[in-house]
Write a structure and sequence with these properties.
The chain has 337 residues and is of the alpha+beta class. The chain folds into two domains: 12-132, no CATH class; 138-332, Spore Coat Polysaccharide Biosynthesis Protein SpsA, Chain A (Alpha-Beta Complex). Helix content is 24%, strand content 26%. The chain contains nine helices and 18 strands. The protein has helices spanning 16-20, 62-71, 89-98, 108-115, 153-159, 196-206, 229-238, 305-318, 327-332; strands at 12-13, 26-29, 35-37, 76-78, 85-86, 101-105, 124-129, 138-144, 165-170, 186-189, 211-216, 219-221, 243-252, 255-256, 264-269, 273-275, 281-283, 291-303. The strands form four sheets. Strands 8, 9, 10, 11, 12, 13, 14, 15 and 18 form a nine-stranded mixed sheet that branches. Strand 16 (273-275) and strand 17 (281-283) form a beta hairpin. The longest helix has 14 residues, at 305-318. The protein starts with 11 loop residues before the first strand and ends in a 5-residue tail after the last helix.
């Protein structure tokens, strides 16, 4: 199965939405809601070298690719009745972000469709550069262990020009002497105690700003995303969205893994709470309807094969039935376009 031209997921399936729209031969992307005719989804070899495909400008879906590329060149995005693809406002927002654009709904009905997906109303929106959206400040929380603090210096230096509030939340009872450096990030300590959601919630509370980006010590924000986080947060605010999913590139021994896009909902309003001892996710009042995916924001995750082989088993021991041991195979398999 080809990957979605919007969010890069490889999970198209027949759904009730396809039937309700009068498209019995269509398939829906389970990640972002884009709907495309089965015959128009054809695999394309562009970008199959395993490079940073999440940030590639190559489209990966035959006729659908061509139609969307053409529509995204217009000042106002609108589909024709005979187009082999269907998007309403919610799905268009994701598609627009994949091209670093913001889709501004054309009227009140389109705004309502964006805020309360899914509807049968085809998307119609003005397309503007994402940079035209005035950014809001964002706090960054990095979960780490005491031994990670010095190694995170280079990451903090990369983040500092774009984020005025950076906190290292250390898994421990206290901050050791010598950890704090003048002009460096804020430091806080709290035992993880086998519960990742509780640690992330503590990080949410430490943030100075209304939007919070959370990273782990073995993750980085891709260079291409550094200047866009505040714009995306402001864009999410326009529709009252509470949580934004970033695409995570898992690189096992430097090779891009097939567990992709591995969406991580790490950009959230400060009031959002996480749930789950492991593989924690935001606990949102309306579930996925309070969230969105921003394909232009990418997290780079560095792992070793040995870590992958031990990781799922350790998580399963921490929270039986929730360790996602099945993910180990996808992590160890090279990326497939």
């Amino acid at each position: 199965m080809t990957r979605c031209p919007s969010c890069r997921a490889r999970d198209f399936r027949p759904t009730e939405r396809c039937q309700a729209l009068g498209r019995p031969n269509a398939l829906e992307c389970s990640h972002c809601g884009l709907i495309a005719e089965r015959g128009a989804l054809q695999a394309d070899a562009n970008g199959s070298d395993g490079a940073s495909l999440a940030r590639s400008s190559a489209w990966i879906a035959g006729e659908v690719r061509s139609v969307l590329a053409e529509r995204l060149e217009d000042e106002v995005f609108a589909l024709s009745a005979d187009d082999p693809v269907f998007l309403e406002s919610y799905a268009l927002r994701t598609l627009a972000l994949s091209k670093t654009l913001a889709a501004i709904p054309a009227d009140a009905a389109q705004w309502n469709a964006l805020k309360a997906p899914y509807t049968k109303l085809p998307a119609q929106a003005k397309l503007v550069p994402l940079g035209d959206i005035e950014p809001v400040p964002v706090s960054v929380i990095i979960l780490c262990r005491p031994g990670d603090v010095s190694a995170l210096t280079s990451l903090v230096e990369r983040l500092a020009p774009c984020f005025a509030d950076i906190v290292l939340l250390i898994d421990g009872e206290a901050i050791a002497p010598g950890m704090t450096q003048p002009g460096g990030p804020r430091l806080a300590a709290r035992p993880l105690a086998g519960h990742f959601a509780a640690q992330r919630n503590a990080g949410q509370d430490l943030a100075l700003y209304d939007w919070v980006l959370q990273l782990d010590a073995d993750e980085e924000l891709a260079q291409s995303a550094l200047g866009s986080v505040g714009h995306v947060a402001a864009y999410a605010d326009q529709a009252g969205t509470l949580s934004v999913g970033l695409l995570r590139e898992n690189r096992v021994d430097r090779r891009l893994s097939d567990l992709f896009p591995d969406v991580q909902y790490r950009l959230n309003r400060k009031a959002v709470r996480y749930a789950g001892a492991v593989h924690e996710r935001p606990d949102l009042p309306r579930g996925w309807r309070d969230s969105m995916i921003a394909p232009n924001l990418v997290i780079e995750h560095r792992l070793s094969r040995a870590h992958v082989e031990a990781r799922s088993k350790a998580y399963e021991a921490m929270s039986p039935g929730h360790g996602r041991t099945f993910e180990a195979g996808d992590l160890l398999r090279p990326y497939r376009p």
